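Recall that a protein's primary structure is simply its ordered list of amino acids. Everything else, from secondary elements to tertiary packing, is in principle encoded there. The following example makes that idea concrete.
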Amino acid sequence: MKSETQPIASKFGTLLGVASGDVPVYSSHYPSADDNELPNRHAYRSYVDGIFMGYKWQCVELARRWLYINKGYIFDDVAMAYEIFNLQSVRVIADNSRLPLKSFRNGSLRHPEPGALLIWSEGGEFEVTGHVAVITEVTPTCLRLIEQNVTHSVWQEGQQYSREIPARITADGSYWLRCSYGDATILGWVVQTDDDTYAEVIEPPKPELYDLQLRQLADKGQTSRAWLNIANPDEEAYVAMMGSHKLGSRPEDQHRYFVQSETAQRELKRATNELHALFMHATDYVLQDDALLEKFNIPAALWPKIHQSWDNRRNQMITGRFDFSVSGRGIKVYEYNCDSASCYMEAGLVQEKWANHFGCNEGESSGEGLLEHLIEAWKASDAAVGDNRDAKRLLHIMQDGDLEETYHALYMQKAIEQAGIPCKVIHGVKGLAWDAAGNVVDADGMQIRWVWKTWAWETALDQIRAECDDDAERLRTYKTDQVRIAAPRLVDVLLREGVMVYEPLWTLIPSNKAILPVLWMLFPNHPYLLNSSFDLTEELKTGGYVTKPIAGRCGFNISLYDADTGLLEETQGRFSAQDQIYQELWKLPEIAGYNGQVCTFSVAGHFGGSCLRVDPTLVITKDSDLIALRVVEDDALLKTSTQVP
């Protein structure tokens, strides 16, 4: 975070001061963090008495730590600080009981008090995260607080707070705080109390706000005219793949679209942000336990490289895709595709061009702003550091000959180049060679040092398994960085020392379905998760279950079983030999003959947009259609019903 006056920042981890209750406050100036003191990502996790407080030294970590040390309770994990304002309870560590939390808007007749949490909304100074601080003193004219991750300066001698905020009490007794930052907004304060007088009424949204609705546009001959600009390479490739200017494959779908409420979109944003954090928690947990890691069926020879990738790549994941069921029953996540994912161009470009051409003016595109999010993520990446005119900074996009991967790669190339990073697309590995120093170079002799790939990491692993004939000992001792006599293969590029790959090698862990039972073990009964297990339990049998190959893709080799009628549906594919996990059966919602799955994109770990895929079956596969999804005001959704002839 930036500060108002930009004072000289103290080194990461420097003690800035000690607050009431003998709670230390630390500098979170990340650029100055010492790699020797903090050698890996796990070292950034903060624990007190074995209880996870958060990441060093962020605002949420301090708030949770202060409450634990002074009150004996903590609030639940949140992906963004502003979400604390909507929490309704805290957990007492001693007995796991719950105490109520109440939230009061800035300007409330109930004044803040010491020990309450002050919450800022997302935006401005606090970007997409919001902010939280602990209130230590309250007067009629000011409020004092402690916080981390705003300024990084040591407090003056004798000072027991980070800063103070001007306050004013109006004639009716309302207590107002003036935010020190002109582009940020104070939501209010959160107090542990039973008294809800003047508190915000936080009620769950109406279930029907989560139901998708199908709409029909008038046929005015729109399909007879071209509407994508084939002078643009990505759009040309898309038209070539689809065989025409269309969004879905079926003629009757060309004039149809779905709508979802703003409430549903907000909840999907929250779910995406929170689930990304939970998947990262679970990934770290797996990488601390070799017995768990073994269940992911990854050659042991790669384990050190995965650990190294995780330790060294704190914020180097560009993007991934969550697959959700969204309906009045609730929001449930099926899996996280954060190794290799698709549908970005359809969500961020094609569905908006479809809307413009077909005259769909209702609401906004669910992928609004996705390209801008991708550009910002690339700007913040290591690939954007330094003089990008230097040929050494060239980033290669590696793809095979698949037409869908072609437009996917070209769309991402647009984001990369708009971020100021030179970029080159190469198809397959034909033409790759070794230079005299043992580096891999492309057909023009340019060294490959930075890569974004459309291939899944499992493709590279399959090359290793094939080379070793799936022999366990050969897989265990496999050497990843040897220069070969033959031309370089995909695995020789992606696992080469000195080559930085997006998405990084550690994304093998959260993308593997074996992460799902780990998540359920760590966060049982979490509202977004489905019961998942490595074994078929009686509970799963009783309620119905789904079998999934741990490293499957594209909806292949999935079987759905109903508790009463048995096998409902299954798909074929090339992953039948993979180990399986078992997941609670939670059918996709059926809307007017469509089974719809909402996909959300996480970009640099935050929500970047969404899209909708549909299929007549219960399983979304690589051949399932994408139909335009529009986000409308809640009232617009509640006042209308499905409108399809």
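The radius of gyration is 26 Å. The mean pLDDT is 90.
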